[in-house]
Amino acid sequence: MDLSYNSLCGSIPEELTDLSGLQYLNLYGNHLTGEITSKIGRVHELESLDLSRNNITGAIPSSLDSLDYLGSLNLSYNNLSGKIPYEKHLATFNDPTIYIGNYNLCGPPLLVNCSEEKLEPTTPASDGQEKDVWLYLGIGSGFVTGLCCCELH
């Protein structure tokens, strides 16, 4: 089922997990929020799951690790956090790019070790915006200082 780029909003419908024979689910590039339901493990036949480029939060449910037929996974560019369940089937996914853009994920295959401290969500865009504010303030104050010095001479 390909529902990519449909401007879907809200959380992932839990009813999708009732489709036990579903093999392909692509929700790429929507506006989905909320967490990945732990009931995702009920979709036993799932071979491909793409939830990338949404605003999904929370931890990756351990039930995702029990999907034995899952051969393709992309969870990149969301706001997932916590330790990646890397004990069973997800341990076969060695490519860290399937998790890229989730700044609070940790554990293999990422190079970020998990600590005991609770990870708090970040908003990477705000870091860039803050730098831009300081840049513009610096340029503005330099311009004003230059004008004042010219007026004095």
From TrEMBL:
The answer to whether UniProt assigns keyword Ubl conjugation to this entry is no
Q: What is this protein called?
A: Uncharacterized protein
Asked if Transcription regulation is a keyword of the record, the answer is: no
Tell me which family the UniProt entry assigns to this protein: Belongs to the RLP family.
Q: Name one GO cellular component term.
A: membrane
Q: How does it sit in the membrane?
A: Single-pass type I membrane protein
Localisation: Membrane
Give one Pfam family, short name only: LRR_8
Q: Which UniProt keywords apply?
A: Glycoprotein, Leucine-rich repeat, Membrane, Repeat, Signal, Transmembrane, Transmembrane helix
